[in-house]
Design a protein that fits this description.
Blueprint lengths: L4 H8 L2 H31 L21 H15 L2 H18 L9 H17 L23 H18 L8 H81 L2 H11 L65 H4 L2 H17 L4 E8 L3 E8 L5 H5 L2 H7 L6 E4 L6 E6 L8 H6 L1 H4 L6 E6 L5 E5 L16 H15 L5 E6 L23 H25 L4 H11 L2 E10 L6 E9 L5 E6 L2 H7 L1 H14 L7
Helix pairs in contact: 2-3, 2-4, 3-6, 4-5, 5-6, 5-7, 16-19, 18-19
Length: 637
Amino acid sequence: MKLSSLNFIESIAPISLRQLIKRQAKRIFGIFIFLLAIYLIISLISWHPNDPSFNNHNNGLIQNFLGTSGAVISDLMLQAIGLGSFALISMLIFISADLILQKRKIFGLPKYIKYPLSFILITILLSSIDITNSGLFKNVINWPYLIGGGGLFGDILVQFIKNILIGHVDFIPINHQNKFIFFLTSLLLALIYLLNKTILRFKKKKDTKLLQSDHESQSLVKQKWNFFQIFFNYLIRLIENLRRKISGLISRDKMEDLSFEEIRDSISDKEPKDNIIIGESIDTKPTTDNFEINQKVPRKRKAVREPASENLDLFKKNSYSLPSVNLLKDNNEINYNNKISPEELEQKASELMEILLKYKVTGEIVSISPGPVVSLFELQPSIGTKSSRVVSLADDIAMSMKAVSARVAVIPGRNIIGIELPLEDRSTVYLSEIIKSEEFLDSKHKLAIALGKNIGGRPVVVDLANMPHLLIAGTTGSGKSVGINTMILSLLYKYTPEDCKMIMIDPKMLELSIYEGIPHLLTPVVTEPKKAIVALKWIIKEMEKRYKNMSKIGVRNLDGYNNEVKKHGGVFKHKIQVGYDEKTGQPNYHNEEINLKKMPFIVVIVDEMADLMAVAGKDIETSVARLAAMARAAGIH
């Protein structure tokens, strides 16, 4: 049998490919119609009555943007359908948009009825208007044709309607026939619009009902299936329980009939024989001496559900003493002030001034401050030297001084520019030095954490409560873990568990696991992402609980709350409205005693935040955002 080319393509191409080709063909056809509409509208907009056409011969300048073809086509369209050309172009644009976008829409009237009928009525409407004598169009349109606004096609339709009216309707005067036709076509256009809207609304309601019925039928099927599934599962469990009970009774009867030797032999047969070691003697003496067997099989005791314990007091007082500083390693190195001599510093200062003079920067080194890692050279530039010029020379200074890097910045509040150069032999900053320092011991910070030393060698202690949150970032090996451990230890050396509690989240299971078991922890170190989400949600509930307690006694932060608790001994009288007086109508109040306890600071430490966000991003992001926005006043950081 011979196949046509179309049948052959359908036989070898899959359905998805055929649908794709069909969609793309529609889209290409829609683009062609859109370009045609653009061509027509440009030719109509630039139409001029003096341009050459089939009715006008002119060898002069063509004013139409599209040349001769545009002039001829625009003249033909205006003579054929008049101003209805713009209605035709609008419909072409709508049709091309449907073909290009190919969106599934619910339509009212079919497009092959709505568009032609609307176009015919619009041309009749335009032809029923006397454009040349109408006051509305006289000053706007200079219509050169002897036909109406609907073109030759509209005039034919209007004349056809007039002939019908003359032959059958006598009450309409001849000079009012155009007005009657205008009114009738306007009414028909409005009816088409209303009919389209009504059909569209009806179809939408029908579709929603069908969707609801489909969902209801699916839910009924699921409910029926769930009911039968539960019923059959219950039958299976019941049969299984009966089988176990019967087999247990049979085995118990058999055990009662067996003698001791048979029981012993059956047990020895079931025991594994791989425990015998070759080469050793086996004791064959009977082991039944002084051996009694109780033939009564003890029954298993039923599990008794004990009452649940009350909520644990996570902030209970306990005897705790701060750890000794002797546990930390002491600094046995030579003081960094003695590592480099004043002569060497002066020599470096002179080298630095020579380099600055090469770049035409004049001034004087007024002070040198050696530090554990870098040395600060204070340059007082001469009058007329721009500070921005000196700051821009940082890389050049580092290269000339053979240093890894150089930092140049203006010291605030002074006419001095600081130049920091790293030392060749760096000194290690020990935590024990900072813990023993006066800055740490005498600090009035709420949550004092040690960060290190400044450029002058003085300990740097900051308050976490004022930050109020801290994010540490850096490359691999840049000291992030050392910094976190330093901060944790500084909190442990400064505050007791009554003053500061911690929650540690360590997905890597390496950094923070060493702190497992310390009394400051509210929970064991969290290592799983799901448990981390639970821990953060608990912190949010604790934050909301703290805010409620603070609102009851009228304070705004944790310090004010703890001061009030200490002042009143934890007992407060809360005024509550219990109703209204029947006689006076005034509200009645009742004083209720509230027992509140001191609340410690809570520090949440999360290691590898990026990894945690990658695993459980949405839940973690929501919890962290709430804590970052609201937890500061509640003492959670």
